[in-house]
Amino acid sequence: MFLLIVLFPFDFMAEDSIKHEDVKKIHLFNGLKFQQGFLLSFSDSAKGRQVEAVLNLGNENNKPVWRLCQWGTKYTLAKAECERIYGDFVYRNEAKKFTVGSAGSNNRDLILEINGHAEYGERARRAGEAWPHLLVEQDAAATHPLSDLAQLRLQIKLRLLTFTDYMKNDFDPGLHAAQFQLFLIVKNIQPQAKDFGDFFWFGVPFFDSRYDIPPAYIARDAGKNDATGKFIYTVGGKSFNSTPMKLGQWISVDCDLLPFIREGLKQAAAKGYLPDSDPQNYAAVNMNIGWEIPGTYDASVQVRDFDLFAIRSVH
Length: 315
Prior knowledge:
Blueprint: H1 12-16, E1 26-27, E2 38-41, E3 51-55, E4 66-69, E5 83-85, E6 88-92, E7 96-100, E8 110-115, H2 116-120, E9 133-139, E10 149-165, E11 179-188, E12 199-208, E13 217-220, E14 231-234, E15 250-256, H3 258-270, E16 282-292, E17 297-312
Parallel strand pairs: 2-4, 12-14
Antiparallel strand pairs: 1-17, 2-3, 4-9, 5-6, 6-7, 7-8, 8-17, 9-16, 10-15, 10-17, 11-12, 11-16, 13-14
């Protein structure tokens, strides 16, 4: 299922050459502390962006900018009540839980917890079957062609809070895993281009239950009925983090994703998914981060100090 590839090393000299006090960060996403709540997706991804419920953290004046996606679950959060616990906001049911921590809380900014044992019971997932997700998603506030950028920088801190493996003799590494990752949709935004509106998935893996450090993955999005069929280009975890995610330990990521995105675009074109690979036609237009659990695992991760920002190139 996974293909290990060799990626181009990050050019630290290029990074250092544009570190100036007057460099302006272009923040691509809003509400990075998650305090405005969430628009909850339906469990059926065929319903697209229809909203099953608004999880407003108990404040009717909140206007969420994030979607909370729960595709493939048997237990919707639509009727979950907002609990206030020591200043934090909590929604939960038997299969999932998320916490939005207040500014001074040990639980800030966001905790995503998923209970695969409740979803699957004693029968492991089989080939072709859907799997539960718990992730947050947002469209970019503005789009900037890749050719206009000097960097597209990811900064984030993560901590694995809990992990329990219920897989027994049914474990198949091609079918079963617990994965916490970030994906960008890199889309053609040029109306005159051959593949206007087409896109590929660019992935950054943080945790994969099968590996200490997740490997790279290049493939077609498949494996379930609602798969997009689009090209997936996921960088190897060692490209941005050499520390495995262990229980209770923070990892920090600060990495320029732009060279990897450019390489993903070239690979997508070379493999016939996109007609061209001109960076001036493409931009990051959407991102999501969170859990996919195609195996019987319970797990939770805390997200803190997340940002994804662009730095314009100097022409």
